[in-house]
Every structure is written in C-alpha cells, then in structure tokens.
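Tokens for Related to 6-hydroxy-d-nicotine oxidase. Go.
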Amino acid sequence: MAFPAMMAAFLLLLLGASASSQLTDAVNSCCLGLYEKYGEQQQLLIPESAQYDAFDERWATNTPLLPSCIFLPISADDIAAALYMLRTGAGSGNSTCPFAIKSGGHAPWPGANDIHDGITIDLSWINRTVLAEDRSSVRLGSGALWSDAYDSLNGTGIAFTGGRIPGVGVGGLTLGGGYSFFSPTHGFVADNVLNYEIVLASGEITNANKTHRSDLFMALKGGSSNFGIVTTFDILAFENADVYRGILIYPIDSTCTVLNSIAWFTENNKDDPDSSMSIEFSFKTGSNDTHILADISDTKDLDNHPALLPFLSIVPRVTKSLGVEPIAGFAPHHDIAPAYRSLMSTVTFVQNSTRNSNILEGVHDITLDTFHKYSHVPDLEWKFVYTPIPRFYSDHSTKLGGNMMGLNNTKENLIMVRLNPHWKDADYDGEIYEAAQVWLAAVQDYTNALGMSHPFVFLNNAAPFQDPLGSYGAENLQFMRDVSKKYDPDQIFQTLVPGGFKLSKAGAGSQRL
C-alpha cells in the first residue's frame, strides 16, 4: 500500500461518516483505491478534505451533489487507471462504481456533471493550452476554461473557435457542438476539432481524427460524453489579432425595433459574414430592472459592420463597451450571479419574413406570457436569448467534414432561443422546471402551426427533459449508437455515468407536461 494501513482505515472511517452514509462497498473500494494511488499527490478529495468544497462548486446553487470522492487526474494515464478501478470496483470483487465527468461544470442542473454516492472525475487539472509550432492549431486540455485558453494566446495574433462565456469548460462545450463568435466564418466549435485524445472504457488511450478511427472522430462532433473521456482537443487556429465588439443596452420599449433587427440580421448576415450577435431580454419579479442587451461583434472588419447597423442605430441606448479589443478580452462576462439557481432550455425555429413576418413577435409574446404566469416566484430573473443560425453556417460545417448535429443540409435561416431563468429559493425548483416545459411546449405548438418549427435542440443549452441527441435525426442517432457499441461494448458510459444526455435514452423526444 502507498500509505500505512492506519491511514487507509482512517479514510474508510471518514467515508462511512460522511454525508453519503449509504455508500456501497464498491464505491468505498474505488475511493480507497484512488486514494492509495493518488492521495499523496492530493489528487483524491473526500468530503472532509479542505479543498473538497472548492472543487465541488458549480455555476448555480441548484447543481452540486455530494460525490463520495473527487478524483483530479493530470494525464490520460491517470484516467485510464481510474477507469479500470471504476469498472472493477477497484478489484475488490464488488460491483462497478458509478461516476461523473466534469470539465467546467457549466450545465446548470443536478447530476449533469456530478453524482451522489459515486466518484466525480474532475478534469480541471488537465488544462494546458499549447500553440502548435506552425501556428495552425492549438491543443486544449479538456478541463481548461475558455478564458484561460484565450489568455494563454494573448499577444500571439492567433485565434480559434471557442466559447463565448469565460467560465465555461472546453470539454463540455466542444463535445456538445459549441457556438462561437467565429461560427459565422468557421462553423461550430466541433467542426474545427482536428484531433481528439480520448480514453476509452477499456482504458485504452487513443486518438480520433479524419484518418484514424474516423467513425469515432465524427461521433464526437456533437455526441457529448457517450464514447469515452476526452483529455485534449486539437483545434484549427488562424491569424486574427483584434476584433470589434460591443455590449449595447436598450430600454424595454425598444422591443419591436430590436426584434425586427434580429429578423433582418438573420436573413442578411450572409452579406456580412464576419459579424455576429445575440440578444438577451431580462425581466425580474418585483422589480423594474428590465433590459435588452445586445452582444455584437465583427471578427474581421474593425470599421465597417453593415449587418450590425440596425443595432448600432437604435436609440436611446447605453453603450457598456464598444470598440476594438484583443481576443483575450473578447468573451463577455455573463457568469451566473452567486447564490442563484439556474436552468437552461432551448428551441429552434425558421426565420423567413416572406413566409411569416411576425414569428419572432409571437415567440416573444409566449415567453413573456409564461413569465407573467410564474411571476409570483420571488427573485426570479427571466432571461431569454435570441441567437441567429443563418443557413450559410452549415456550409462551413460541410466544408470541414460535417458533424452529428443534423444541420449540414439546412436550407433555412434559423433562430435559437435559450430560456435561462435564475432564482434563489429551492422551494420553487419544481415550478421553474414546469415553467420551462410550459414555455417549450407553447413555442413548439406555435411554430408547428405556422409550419416553421425546426427539430434541432442545441445540446449545450438543453434542459434535462429535452432530447438533443434525438433531434440530430434517426440516421445520426443510429450512427452514434453503433460507434458507442463498437468502442464501449460493455456500455460503461451509458450505465455507469448517469449524468448528461445518454444515447441509450435518446430518440424519445422532449418530455411534455
């Protein structure tokens, strides 16, 4: 043993006395095995550890569960060793050990990237950012945050497709598809991955790219954590030193003008493809603190932004920031406020003013009606964000080889809406989840009736009651299932990892009340 027998016995005593008093023998054995191998390097944390709470923190207060122990690998070899223990109950003869995988912990719902009575594999120490010598790609550790990755390349004149929010982890966003400020010119983040280093359920460490295990390579482009634990991503890089960006805040009585500008932008972005935008509406119960926030950017032209002119022309407005800045300062600071609970859900619909010029107004009215229905919830911040996905985005995906997301043959301009309520009191969790489902069903019924619905559910923004993997289409879903069974024949990542969106549960559609 790496530690004296007394230390091991003390660990078991701590585990038995922890908040998770129903621990199975297998989980005890796995935590002990990991402690014996990695405890001296402080890579294994139990609830009584000084650092346990810090590593179990999440974006929102409704997400943390209490894992029996937290494992902090620093390499693919560490993960391979851990997977062997988890598959075998650390060789104790007991059953296998359930576990969770955490990159940045962004998904704001319990169990998405954490677990109760199990082991959390926290990838935050696998966080290096390395620029290739030829400057054509960047290697990102799965546990890095996008803010750290951008900071690492500050001053190099190099950019890459990555997340828009600083505190989000590289791994989860990239495996879910990933929307970037550079998506109008380079596609989704997943489209730009050149190579995945991944640890399979067997413990084998391998690479997946266009020429080696190309089926696994394709499945990882939107297939989430169903195939193994990805440790590093090699992502296409390109020259791009500075960008033009602005945060503009409008009064709520500018709603009609803003909605018309969103529709116009979505249908005309192709003529100014370096520009992108997203619009957030925010309402709060018991407060007049309502606003419209426009996050606009141009990643190439620092002076001329024709697609953004409708937003720059709206008055009155407050300009929070507007100008040229380096990539490292590009990601906006939209992290969830401390002490808030949170949920995300999303829906996609067709934007075509010729077919229906009022669809945005209709969706907007439904969203406000739902807020008013649940406005009795104290301290409720009802945020919803419109993000255009013009048809030409899929051209970049196709050029780069495609992905699993089911958008490669899109013939229409689309708009994604993300509903993102925040609230403080856990007593209202059930009502907020109900509100999100009521909203989702109403928007789907409305857009279906107009013949302008779209099945795509963006995994990075999906709620636990939604079915993003199923929304990719039957053919893509079957392909991912075949790949899963090929590289994970015992279906470890379907049965031992309860969190996230599972291929084994996909295809049934989103749950409705």
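The mean pLDDT is 91.
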